[in-house]
Amino acid sequence: MENQVVAGDNARIGDKAPDFKVKTTTGDMTFSEYNKGSWVVMFSHPADFTPVCTTEMSAFAVDKDFYAKHNTKLLGLSIDSIHSHLAWVNNVRENTGVYMDFPIIADLDMKVANLYGMLHPGESETAAVRAVFFIDPKGTIRLIMYYPLNVGRNMDEIQRVLIALQTVDTCKCALPVNWRPGDKAIVPPPKTLVEMDERIANTTYEKVDFYLMKKEIALN
């Protein structure tokens, strides 16, 4: 099966994630089917058998239980062939004991990379930058990160924002700078004078001013 992609512009936050059919290291995939009922963290890397990419992809594999616990599937991509992907996965497993058993897309024709805006000509016209897309179970792109070819991603931040996105959905709140699980959330700003007075009168909030208050939230 040749890679097939639904036409569209480069993906942005709030967009419906463009659907596609591809070959991966775990078999043929239709993205919308893979995404159904779970979050997806999709990430591109410049090339197989390169040092920074090896450290990153291995880190995703080592932390796969974290993602599974948070109802999240992993999906990698580079502009390499299936044969290159398989050889690289096996090489990493033999040399480090880490098994990158999540699907990795073979995007030789660069259709998915172009569809999602993973090719930045200022960096490279033939290698995807280190992009990360957070896609929710409804198929909506919720957050995008871009890293250059020569700087590895921060895996702690990727996990932090995944939990943050799931938290704002569950608790219907906003989260302040450097938020981590256990920290207080932002109380939504008032829209009327009555709501403003109610916020001011509330004794359970941490108050800076009427427009900036925080509250405790319960996480599962």
Structural overview:
The chain is of the alpha+beta class and 220 residues long. It has two domains: 4-170, Glutaredoxin (3-Layer(aba) Sandwich), CATH 3.40.30.10; 172-220, Antioxidant, Horf6, Chain A, domain2 (Antioxidant, Horf6, Chain A, domain 2, 2-Layer Sandwich), CATH 3.30.1020.10. The chain is 31% helix and 23% strand. The strands form three sheets. It has a five-stranded mixed β-sheet with strand order 6-5-4-7-8. Strands 1-2-3 form a three-stranded antiparallel β-sheet. The protein has a three-stranded antiparallel β-sheet with strand order 9-11-10, with no helix packed on it. A hairpin with a 2-residue loop joins strand 2 and strand 3 (27-30). The longest helix is centred in the C-terminal third of the chain and has 17 residues, at 155-171. The N and C termini lie far apart (42 Å). Residues 1-8 have low confidence and may be disordered.
Major sheet attributes: 5 strands, mixed
**Helix count from the secondary structure assignment:** 7
Cα end-to-end separation: 42 Å
Q: Which overall shape is indicated by the principal axes computed on the Cα atoms? A: elongated
Briefly, what is this?
With 220 residues, this protein is an alpha+beta fold.
Task: Write the SSE topology.
Elements: E1 4-5, E2 20-24, E3 27-30, H1 31-35, E4 39-44, H2 51-62, H3 64-69, E5 72-78, H4 82-96, E6 104-106, H5 111-115, E7 130-135, E8 141-147, H6 155-171, E9 185-186, H7 193-201, E10 206-209, E11 212-215
